[in-house]
Amino acid sequence: MKYTKLAEGVARRIADEYPGIDADDIQQEILLHVTEKRAHYEGSEYPEGTLRKNFRKVAVSYAGRERYAFIYHSAEYVYTSSEVRQLFEKAFFQPEMWEKAPTMDDGVSVAAGGIVVALWDLDRAYSLLPVLDAAVIAKRYEHGEALSSAETMRLSRAIDKITRTLNNGVVKRQNEARTYVGPGLRRIGATGE
User: Fold this and answer.
1) What is the CA radius of gyration of the chain?
2) Is the pLDDT reported for residue 74 higher than 80?
3) How far apart are CA 73 and CA 167, in angstroms?
4) What whole-number distance in Å separates Cα of residue 155 and Cα of residue 9?
5) Do 10 and 52 meet the contact criterion of CB atoms below 8 Å apart?
6) 109: left (phi over 0), alpha (psi -120 to 50) or beta
7) 48-74 and 23-36 helices, crossing angle to 10°
8) What torsion do the CA atoms of 55, 68, 170, 12 make, to the nearest 10 degrees?
9) Which pLDDT score is estimated for 112?
10) What is the pLDDT of residues 2-59, one digit of tens each?
């Protein structure tokens, strides 16, 4: 199909924005869309930019639905880089957010905690960053200073590191759940017998 390469590129970019959503699945969703709208696509000559924009809409819609379904069914929240940036920009370096927030010891549940739990998670991940990465985040979001192009690249990589750190706990819990052999889930040979 003539749209495969373009769909693959869009799918890879969207998969980077939506942790846990597979690029191949996104690509297949885009190509399914093209197949379902075959007459529409064959009847017009779209410039590549327009196709990319259309494919991106399809991909974001699919990734968003999949992410929501995962969160709903697993009760596990998966952070995106965009959300991490927003937390830094609007809450993390705002003293009033921390002054009013209960501490982890106060027993706030994840369901009731909302942004408080996100801040706790973010604080833990931020504390694990190398000093230069933490400094560039503070320079941009705490002090509001302009960044050089090298600092902008460092910021992007630091945000990605934090996003991965935040989501690694989810992946770890998923893997533990897959290998759990509890009551009713015991498989023959699982105990070495």
Assistant:
1) 21
2) no
3) 16
4) 24
5) yes
6) beta
7) 120
8) 0
9) 37
10) 889 999 999 999 988 887 788 999 999 999 999 998 888 877 788 888 899 999 999 9
> What is d(CA 137, CA 139) in angstroms, rounded to the nearest whole number?
5
Residues contacting 81, CB < 8 A, separation 6+ = 17, 159, 160, 163
C-alpha distances out from residue 176 to 41, 73, 124, 138, 150, Å: 45, 17, 21, 35, 39
Phi, psi values for residue 166, rounded to 5°? -60, -40
pLDDT tens digits for 153-187? 999 999 999 988 888 765 555 555 555 444 444 45
Token pair of 190, please?
């699982």
78 phi and psi angles, rounded to 5 deg? -115, 120
The DSSP code sequence of 92-161 is IT-HHHHHHSPPGGGT--HHHHTHHHHHHHHHHHHHTS-HHHHHHHIIIIIS-----HHHHHHHHHHHHH
Residue with tokens 């921390």: 98
**Dist. CA 127–CA 22, nearest whole Å:** 29
DSSP per residue over 51-100, as a string?
Answer: HHHHHHHHHHHHHHHHHHHHHHHH------HHHHHHHIIIIIT-HHHHHH
- Two tokens at 146? 């302009």
